[in-house]
Design goal:
Mean pLDDT: 78
Largest sheet: 4 strands, antiparallel
Number of helices: 41
Number of strands: 4
Length: 977
């Protein structure tokens, strides 16, 4: 019996071994195809699919949408969510790569010569992959790369799939759909549209078509083609898989319809979003947007405001008060009630607890309202705080930053003028009216302090509740913890000082608590003399004894001082009338000092309003008040000059001529009067910068040619015509360089010190300071010429002799079989770096599918370098350069710079020991004469890496012995199906 059982086991093992041998990937039979497909599906692919599902779950859980903007169609469109689930997607990619390496069948099946080949059979024989399930592994690998945020790698994978499965239109169509999705994320819209066109030429499965609707909607929305995107977005939302994805797409659909003014359709879409039972935050924002949508309809605004106020009273929405009141303010603003809108925004600002993007958007809208009303003192804190809360990727972030900087310059002057005007108005009031006004200010201060104390108590109670693991107020457990609100709002989990948004918020909190303080040690001490002493000084005991001797007399005077301090304390307490009365200018001297502050504030505010704010009517009003009401202003000529410039830019030529005539009558000897009365003033104002640039270029060329007379002549012209020109420090520096070996050291240092004093931040100030130090230390100027402007001759060696000595120690190497780099060097301002990077990346991606090259851009003192690495030899770099020069889109960039094919070892010497021109001479003599084949291949098949444990003993034996069959041959047995 035991012998019989053993025979059965041996027979089963024999069958298994024979089946595994006959089902090898080297054979293409019905059995091998079934076995490899089955093994792929239920072994490696299954594990990868589980990892992919886990990655999707992690991404959904870690995703946080910004509801103040259009939602991205895909979660990966939010850059902050791309790291979620990354490890799971990498596991899925690894599994797919393993499945492809172990179970791919490339060999064609054997077909009987007598059998008639039908069109279907011919199409099948044109395939490049015969494992019927392996396409799923390829597609999942591309999807995982896409979800990981590696769009270029995913695009390369889908592009390869489209070619590999060209004989299977359904697979190629799906790959092209995903390829378009990758291109869209990279903002390559033309390529995305082309991929979608190729997809529609193939046979499309229903699931692929529905996914293509989402891709098409994403492409059109990113191009702001909202009306065209609507039908695709509607279908994508209707057929989306999963309630969460459906809810997001319906919310996005409502946003788009609201943007297009389709209120009824938007309300219905948002209602569909709510019916999907999405997470609390999505549902809450959908209800908020519904109120704004309905408020657009006549007579519905009041009803929606009432609904929003009921939402504000709910404990579940305590953390979302900024959004509720932001919506209320928007409705009021739509109705034209600006005062009510401001009140709502201010209430949302005060009630916000999260300090997230939502509060930043509210502050931005409030700041814009104040800006439009020219209430810059109130707009400034709004913009300052909003910058720390908003994402830097916003399209209007640069304009927001500009406004904030302008307000930071303007508000100190306007606030000073407003304060002094108010104080002078109080000085002219009767005593009763003045005391009543002061009492109102004190009452408002006490009320504000009471509210702040209550807010601190509430925040302390909330902190204690959170420490005990309780929800403050027993709110919804699905809502985010308020202690992590700031971190969740920013979406950046980096260390504090690596997160600029959090750092900005911290600075604002510090200023709010402590005011503006100088960055120094012991900043909290009011008397720095106590701590600012030499640590090496000993203790003076004699002085200590003398102090002890006079301590008794000081005690006697202490009582009198305390009485005086009690009187002074009333003047230092903002809750007492004496505090405000002390600031009011009652005397003539105090009023004169107040007028001086007003005059200075009006002048500086007017200039900022003219140049930075570019609000010409406001600037004219400010400067005209200065010239009309304060004729004793000591810089009146400057004020009239600014008025002349203002009216000239504004197009008010009549007013400009009046200002010009006034200056000629009252300030005839002033330099600005002579300047504006110059017959060529308008010409110089229009073209002066270009003329001065040309003059400086001629001056510098004369210096390089050692034409000192021309340098002196042009320097005199610059001094006479352009004393305040932008190139003035360079004129002064070149003038000194031209006389470096001929003039007295004192004259040279005096002129250089004048340059450093007047232009400390100019481009040449650092070099000027170094020359001054050298001359004053007794060093002699070198005899070699220093080419200041030639980028191609630049090197850090300061003298020719030094460079020669260094060259003897280190030389260029002529080695060809070493890693090389393609370098495009160009003047920094001559090329748009982003455009160059785009064209070069597009060229690499479309030309080379298998090979990958790294790109890096560096900038240093006017010279930029685009370095492309990844070449194993000079021959490969040369072949790459040959293709680059044939690309019509890259040729314009190449003409503006210099191309170097240089080894990494030689690249280290450029800019230090040798210049670019030095390497050009070396290249012409060493590498240029080398003849290379014109068709040198750069596109090579990837080398697949395998490990020993992935092979059977028989496969390892064949590999080690070097035997194996050619994949291009056909099998002797098997059958096509």
């Amino acid at each position: 019996m035991y012998i019989k059982r053993a025979l059965y086991i041996l027979l089963a093992l024999t069958v298994c071994v024979m089946a595994s041998v006959s089902c090898s990937t080297k054979k293409n039979t019905a059995a091998s195809r079934f076995w490899q497909s089955f093994n792929t599906r239920y072994n490696v692919y299954y594990n990868g699919s589980q990892a992919y599902i886990e990655g999707e779950k992690s991404k959904v859980q870690g995703h946080k949408d910004n509801y103040t903007e259009f939602l991205p169609v895909f979660l990966v469109g939010n850059e902050k969510s791309r790291t979620s689930g990354k490890s799971s997607f990498e596991t899925a990619i690894t599994k797919c790569q393993k499945a492809i390496a172990l179970h791919s069948i490339k060999r064609r099946p054997v077909v009987s010569a007598s059998k008639r080949k039908t069109p279907k059979m011919k199409a099948y024989l044109q395939r490049k992959e015969y494992n019927p399930f392996l396409k799923n592994a390829w597609l999942m690998m591309g999807r995982a790369q896409f979800e990981k945020g590696d769009f270029l790698e995913a695009a390369a994978t889908f592009s390869y799939i489209a070619r590999l499965y060209a004989a299977e239109p359904a697979v190629a169509a799906e790959a092209n759909q995903w390829l378009a999705r990758c291109y869209t994320q990279e903002k390559w819209y033309y390529d995305a549209e082309d991929a979608l066109k190729r997809m529609r030429r193939d046979t499309i499965q229903r699931a692929t078509l529905r996914e293509a609707d989402a891709t098409q909607a994403d492409l059109l929305l990113r191009q702001e083609r909202f009306e065209e995107a609507l039908p695709y977005l509607e279908r994508a939302a209707r057929y989306a898989k999963g309630s969460f994805r459906q809810a997001r797409l319906y919310y996005l659909l409502g946003q788009v319809q609201h943007h297009l003014g389709q209120s009824q359709q938007a309300y219905k879409s948002l209602q569909k979003c709510i019916r999907k039972s999405p997470p609390f935050e999505l549902s809450f924002n959908a209800r908020i947007l519904q109120t704004e949508v309905l408020a657009d309809q006549k007579g519905m605004g009041k009803k929606m405001i009432g609904k929003l106020r009921r939402m504000a009273r709910s404990d579940n929405n305590k953390e979302y008060l900024d959004q509720v009141y932001y919506a209320i303010g928007n409705i009021y603003l739509t109705q034209g009630d600006t005062a009510a809108a401001i009140a709502a925004y201010e209430k949302g600002r005060a009630g916000s607890t999260r300090n997230g993007i939502e509060k930043g958007v509210l502050l931005l809208r409030l700041g814009q309202v104040y800006w439009d009303q020219r209430r810059f003192d109130k707009a400034q804190p709004c913009y300052t705080e909003a910058i720390g809360l908003l994402d830097k990727t916003r399209e209007d972030y640069e304009e927001i930053t500009r406004r904030s900087k302008v307000l930071d310059k303007l508000v100190p002057y306007t606030s000073a003028v407003y304060l002094q005007d108010s104080l002078q108005a109080l000085s002219r009031m009767s005593e009763a009216d003045r005391n009543a006004a002061i009492d109102r200010v004190i009452e408002a201060l006490k009320k504000k302090e009471a509210e702040e104390r209550k807010a601190r108590r509430d925040s302390a109670a909330q902190a204690r509740a959170e420490e005990n693991g309780q929800a403050a107020g027993g709110g919804n457990m699905n809502k985010p913890n308020s202690s992590n609100a700031q971190q969740a709002a920013t979406g950046n989990k980096a260390w504090y000082f690596y997160n600029p948004m959090v750092v900005t918020q911290g600075k604002q909190d510090f200023v709010r608590l402590w005011g503006k303080r100088k960055n120094e040690d012991n900043w909290r001490r009011s008397n720095h003399t106590v701590v600012k002493m030499d640590d090496h000084e000993g203790f003076d005991y004699a002085a200590d004894d003398s102090l002890q001797n006079v301590s008794d007399s000081l005690r006697n005077a202490e009582t009198d001082e305390l009485q005086a301090e009690a009187a002074d304390s009333l003047q230092d307490d903002p809750h007492q009338r004496e505090y405000y009365l002390k600031q009011i200018p009652f005397t003539d001297e105090a009023r004169a000092a107040s007028d001086a502050i007003i005059m200075d504030g009006l002048y500086n505010a007017g200039v900022i309003e003219k140049d930075d704010l570019e609000d010409f009517p406001l600037a004219a009003s400010t400067l005209e008040r200065l010239t009309t009401h304060y004729p004793t202003y000591e810089h009146m000529a400057d004020a009239w000059y600014q008025l002349f410039l203002l009216y000239s830019r504004w197009g008010r030529t009549d007013k400009a001529e009046e200002a010009k005539a006034y200056m000629a009558q009252h300030f005839a000897d002033d330099e600005r009067t002579k300047l504006i009365n110059d017959p060529d003033f308008e010409y110089n104002a229009r073209y002066g910068k270009l003329i001065e640039d040309s003059l400086y270029t001629a001056t510098y060329n004369a210096y390089r040619q050692r034409n000192v007379q021309m340098v002196d002549h042009n320097y005199a012209v610059s001094t006479d015509k352009y004393p305040n020109g932008i190139n003035r420090p360079k004129f002064m520096f070149v003038h000194v360089l031209a006389h470096l070996n001929t003039s007295a050291t004192k004259d040279l240092t005096d002129e250089l010190r004048q340059l450093l004093q007047k232009y400390p931040d100019s481009d040449v100030s650092e070099m000027a300071g170094m020359i001054v130090k050298g001359l004053e230390s007794g060093r002699k100027p070198g005899t070699g010429t220093f080419d200041l402007g030639s980028l191609w001759d630049r090197r850090t060696a300061s003298a020719d002799s030094v460079a020669t000595d260094a060259a003897k120690a280190r030389k260029f190497t002529p080695e060809r079989n070493t890693p090389f780099v393609f370098v495009l060097a160009y003047p920094t301002d001559s090329v748009q770096t982003n455009a160059l990077l785009y064209e070069m990346a597009h060229f690499n991606f479309t030309t080379f599918v298998v090979r990958g090259f790294d790109m890096e851009v560096s900038h240093e003192k006017g010279l930029s370098q685009l370095c492309i690495s990844g070449f194993n030899s000079f021959d490969e770099a040369h072949a790459y350069a040959s293709r680059v020069f044939k690309d019509k889109n890259l040729v314009p960039y190449l003409r503006k710079g210099r191309v170097m094919l240089i080894s990494k070892q030689n690249l280290e010497l450029i800019g230090t020991t040798f210049s670019i021109n030095d390497y050009q001479k070396f290249y012409d003599s060493t590498f240029a004469p080398v003849k290379l084949p014109a068709d040198l291949p750069l596109e090579m098949a990837p080398v697949e890496q395998h490990y020993e444990d992935e092979y059977t003993p028989e496969q390892l034996e064949r590999i080690n012995s070097g035997s194996g069959s050619d994949d291009n041959t056909t099998d002797d047995g098997g059958e096509w199906y």
